[in-house]
Specification:
The complex is a heterodimer.
Chain A: H1 2-17, H2 20-34, H3 41-67, H4 71-77, H5 82-111, H6 119-142, H7 150-163, H8 171-176, H9 179-193, H10 197-208, H11 214-240
Chain B: E1 3-14, E2 17-28, E3 32-36, H1 43-50, E4 58-63, H2 69-72, E5 76-79, H3 91-101, H4 106-119, H5 135-147, E6 153-157, H6 165-179, E7 184-189, H7 192-198, E8 201-206, E9 209-215, H8 216-221, E10 225-230, H9 235-242, E11 248-250, E12 254-257, H10 262-274, E13 279-286, H11 288-297, E14 307-309, H12 311-319, H13 323-327, H14 335-343, H15 349-359
Parallel strand pairs in B: 3-7, 3-8, 5-6, 6-7, 9-14
Antiparallel strand pairs in B: 1-2, 1-4, 8-9, 10-12, 10-13, 11-12
Helix pairs in contact in B: 3-4, 4-5, 5-6, 10-14
The chains are: A mainly alpha, B alpha/beta.
Chain lengths: 248, 360
């Protein structure tokens, strides 16, 4: 209950600040630029699958900024525990992004409905998409100055870069590396890229809405598990660190 | 009395920077403790450690006998140094939210919010946006939010920092009223007059530890030097006053006593009364607290264990005043206060009457 109250408090502040106009403008711009043409469900979810992570990057950054202020000391001294504080920020940001996605869907439903999309199809496409929003928001929260010290942030970002390194270390460059280093790099890419699979497959699932195989359900479970793991790690790190908010 | 705050050998480091270095401190229930120290010495760090925002590097910290500070937080009110609040809300909304976070609800929440708005004088501004508030008003809001749950312990960090003189006065008057509610109060400040006005006991933080502690009442007893403002003094009256002690210097409109003792002060006041001279004011020129503070932060009182100074320790320098200063009267210590009360028309009863007779 306290978590819901704190989430409401954070949301209300965000709405009153007028910053939500950015999300509304982003929705309108996306609709007018990409979604006014005749389209099918696959195209709609492809656009929505890119729109929502980009919006999550902006909105989560804005909420992390709201949380990382000296105002937080009073809240934390008044019964808002550290876990509630962090989860409240996460939930408020996710609510805004999910709301923006909802607004986009509503606009599309009213003005230019995809020819092959019914309510069930919309729900099936939306579920992995929302989980991806949560995943990205949790990752950003974990990598924010609120939660991880700079050294840890650099380590995690380095690991993520290593996981994606197959995109830019390949071909002749990879061949030029010694055999041992090449094997090690491939192993690390496979190992570190593993946690990214549910997010990418989640995007694919949203576009195809193909739930005919158990893999689809397993992926939803993997997305949810990864989300819980990231949040758990963020909460653990936040609970143990010295709280020194930015003095904006 | 039970100790509300118990700190033993507390250390806090930020990487290589050692802020607190073996700080030990105890504050009893109902006590108002003032922690003095220059800016950047670690006062706010100590409060943040007590609130559990920071983790000690070493040492023991207990609030209400519990080292799990999350568990006791509901019994603690905190007034932060910086008046940073969520400015998109009105004070009423903001207090209602904070109250609900603390587990208050319904009529109880409503009643407490209205009560504290009235206590800090913000009822008329209760529907204004916090963004329009002055620093003084925001600090009053800070007091209101801290009192909302009627906490047993109040942690106050530099309450008048950044306020203009009028704002400072407002907040001090407010805190003086709050003090009378009987909370245990831990006040960090670098303003000596706040400690003199509000605190029972004072400690000076220097070099990462409490170097000196004293009862404020003891420090109030004797001002190191005072000036008595008078209507007018003739040359003969000035000579007579200066003959009372080598520390007495008089001009046409004032008498300075330095070093001051209760006995010498009483003798001067009595002489002025006897001569029918109008006494306009008695002002301390240097407070013992100021002397204590300056000596502590300059390292002159820095010792392994905090120096707890009894009244005698502070009277000592003044007792070493020339014999002529004390031989002119046999008035006991404290009689100066009685005489002052007499001047102000505040004494009555047998004891005061007896003293008047003695003086005659």
């Amino acid at each position: 209950m306290r978590l819901l109250r704190f989430t409401g408090f954070t949301l209300l502040e965000y709405l009153r600040s007028g910053r939500v106009a950015i999300e509304i403008i982003a929705v309108m711009a996306t609709y007018f630029v990409f979604l006014r043409r005749p389209m099918d469900a696959e195209y709609f979810f492809s656009v929505a699958g890119i729109f929502t992570p980009v919006l999550t990057l902006y909105t989560m950054a804005a909420f992390i900024g709201l949380g990382d202020r000296p105002q937080g000391y009073v809240l934390l001294s008044r019964g808002v525990g550290r876990a509630t504080f962090l989860l409240g920020i996460f939930l408020a940001a996710c609510t805004i992004v999910a709301g923006a996605y909802g607004l986009l869907c509503l606009t599309v439903a009213l003005l230019n409905r995809p020819i092959d999309l019914d309510l069930l199809g919309w729900l099936l496409g939306t579920l992995p998409l929302l989980l991806n929003i949560g995943l990205l928001a949790a990752l950003m929260l974990m990598l924010s100055p609120l939660v991880f010290p700079t050294s840890w942030r650099l380590v995690v970002l380095g690991l993520i870069a290593l996981a994606f390194s197959s995109n830019f270390i390949g071909g002749t460059l990879l061949q030029a590396l010694p055999e041992t280093l090449r094997s090690l790099l491939r192993a690390l890419q496979a190992l570190l890229g593993g946690p990214l699979v549910p997010a990418f497959y989640g995007f694919q699932l949203a576009v195809t809405r193909d739930y005919s195989t158990p893999t689809a359900y397993a992926n939803l479970l993997a997305q949810a598990s990864l989300l819980v793991s990231l949040l758990g790690l963020a909460l653990y790190a936040f609970s143990r660190r010295d709280l020194i908010f930015s003095s904006q | 009395m039970t100790d509300v705050i118990e700190i033993t050998e507390l250390h806090k480091n930020y990487s290589e920077l050692q802020v607190l270095q073996g700080l030990s401190l105890r504050v009893a229930a109902g006590e108002v403790y003032g922690l003095l120290g220059p800016n950047g010495v670690g006062k706010s760090t100590l409060i943040h450690l007590m609130l559990g925002f920071l983790r000690p590097s070493r040492g023991r910290l207990r609030i209400f006998g519990d080292s799990n500070l999350e568990r006791v937080r509901a019994r603690v009110g905190y007034i932060p140094e910086r008046q940073r609040y969520h400015t998109r809300y009105t004070p009423r909304e903001y207090l209602r939210f904070l109250g609900s976070f603390s587990g208050l609800a319904g009529a109880d929440l409503h009643e407490r919010v209205e009560r504290e708005l009235a206590t800090v004088g913000l009822r008329d501004a209760a529907e204004r946006n916090l963004g329009t508030f002055s620093k003084g008003m925001l600090q009053r809001l800070g007091v209101a939010q801290a009192l909302l749950t009627d906490p047993d312990l109040l942690l106050i960090d530099e309450p008048t920092s950044g306020l203009d003189p009028a704002g400072q006065r407002e907040v001090i008057e407010l805190l003086a009223a709050v003090r009378d509610r009987g909370h245990t109060v831990f006040l960090c400040t670098h303003y000596l007059h706040e400690v003199e006005l509000l605190c029972d006991r004072v400690g000076v933080l220097a070099g990462g530890r409490i170097t000196t502690e004293a009862q404020v009442a003891d420090l109030r007893d004797v001002a190191g030097s005072v000036r008595v403002q008078v209507g007018a003094l003739s040359l003969e009256q000035r000579r007579h006053l200066e003959a009372l002690g080598v520390g007495v210097r008089a001009d046409a409109q004032s008498v300075r006593i330095n070093p001051n003792t209760p006995a010498l002060q009483a003798a001067v006041l009595r002489a002025l009364l006897d001569a029918g001279v109008a006494i306009l004011a008695l002002e301390p020129l240097e407070s013992p607290l100021e002397r204590l503070y300056l000596q502590a932060i300059s390292g002159k009182l820095a010792v392994a264990e905090p120096t707890v100074l009894p009244p005698a320790a502070w009277a000592a320098p003044f007792k070493s005043a020339p014999a002529a200063a004390t031989s002119s009267t046999d008035a006991p210590s404290g009689e100066g206060d009685t005489l002052l009360n007499e001047l102000l028309g505040r004494t009555d009863g047998q004891e005061a009457g007896g003293r008047r007779q003695d003086a005659e």
